[in-house]
């Protein structure tokens, strides 16, 4: 039985690279990882408050199956639409088809993104190239039982592409304008082992930045357009503190004891910032 990989770009408020895979068989659904599986792969971005746009040059996508006896050591190339994508546009649930491919089974061991050199970021209307070293052009994420699940014939996992932490100051140049370097930071999560926080922050003039903090971990979101909506996905279960940073003279707000549960969206009532 042949199966099709559908690779899509999911635009969520948090920056993550999301990989979603599912299977539909003629005789019904199956959770057997050795059966062919159809997959949908989504791209989303963990936002950065520093840049207005972040353009990532995606040239290739591969998955590695656990069977090393397969051709190319188990690595399978997926057909994608290579190009430069502004990952900061990928938020609030919008998605688009990214490419297609086939896999003989769902036993995926690793994922590899192949990046090009046409990467850049825009800040205050100015564009800055993102230098990338040859060894950083292949970004590999490992999969294990904690971040990979098969349920009712579906294989589900997301990869969080952290744009903020992936852009570093590059001091390799000369003078005061050394620029920036791209060294991608990603993490994998599933819906069954993570939750989300969503809500609205107004007014738009406050240019708020929303941070979900637990221990030493911080996830960031920037409310979208005039409606102030935000959503932070891929959060481990636990009790968070929500820090809402106001700009332009608006005061900060802190919300404590925000409980996140696996498979659930935690909704925060409307937050209105004041001067």
Can you lay out the helices and strands and say which pair or pack?
Layout: E1 5-11, E2 17-22, E3 39-41, E4 45-46, E5 53-65, E6 75-80, E7 83-86, E8 94-101, E9 108-115, E10 120-123, E11 126-131, E12 138-142, E13 149-151, E14 154-162, H1 163-166, E15 167-169, E16 180-182, E17 186-189, E18 195-202, E19 209-214, E20 217-221, E21 229-235, E22 238-245, E23 253-260, E24 265-272
Parallel strand pairs: 1-3, 4-14, 11-16, 18-24
Antiparallel strand pairs: 1-8, 2-3, 2-14, 5-6, 5-7, 5-9, 5-10, 6-8, 9-12, 10-11, 13-14, 14-17, 15-16, 18-21, 19-20, 19-22, 22-23
Description:
Mean pLDDT is 76; it is low at 1-30. The chain has one helix at 163-166, and strands at residues 5-11, 17-22, 39-41, 45-46, 53-65, 75-80, 83-86, 94-101, 108-115, 120-123, 126-131, 138-142, 149-151, 154-162, 167-169, 180-182, 186-189, 195-202, 209-214, 217-221, 229-235, 238-245, 253-260, 265-272. The strands form 3 sheets. The protein has a 17-stranded mixed beta sheet that branches. It has a 4-stranded antiparallel beta sheet with strand order 20-19-22-23, with no helix packed on it. β13 and β14 (154-162) form a beta hairpin. It has 1 helix and 24 strands.
């Amino acid at each position: 039985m042949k199966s099709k990989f559908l690779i899509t770009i999911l635009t969520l408020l948090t920056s993550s690279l999301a990989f979603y895979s599912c299977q539909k068989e003629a005789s019904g659904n199956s959770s057997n990882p050795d059966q062919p599986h159809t997959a949908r792969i989504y791209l989303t971005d963990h936002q950065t408050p520093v840049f207005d746009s972040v353009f990532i040059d995606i040239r290739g996508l591969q998955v590695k199956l656990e069977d090393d006896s397969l051709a190319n050591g188990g690595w399978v190339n997926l057909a994608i639409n290579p190009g430069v994508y502004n990952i900061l546009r990928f938020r609030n649930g919008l998605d688009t088809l990214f490419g297609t491919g086939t896999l003989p089974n769902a036993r995926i061991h690793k994922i590899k993104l192949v990046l090009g050199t046409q990467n850049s970021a825009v800040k205050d209307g100015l564009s800055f190239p993102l230098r990338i070293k040859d060894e950083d052009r292949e970004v590999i994420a490992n999969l294990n039982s904690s971040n990979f699940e098969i349920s009712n014939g579906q294989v589900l996992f997301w990869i969080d592409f952290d744009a903020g932490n992936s852009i570093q100051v590059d001091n390799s140049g000369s003078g005061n304008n050394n620029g920036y370097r791209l060294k991608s930071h990603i993490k994998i999560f599933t819906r069954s082992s993570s939750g989300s926080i969503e809500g609205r922050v107004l007014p738009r003039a406050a240019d708020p930045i929303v941070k979900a903090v637990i221990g030493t971990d911080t996830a960031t979101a920037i409310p979208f357009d005039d409606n102030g909506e935000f959503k932070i996905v891929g959060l481990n279960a636990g009790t968070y503190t929500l820090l809402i940073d106001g700009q332009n003279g608006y005061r900060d707000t802190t919300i404590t004891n925000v409980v996140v549960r696996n498979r659930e969206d935690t909704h925060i009532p409307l937050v209105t910032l004041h001067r």
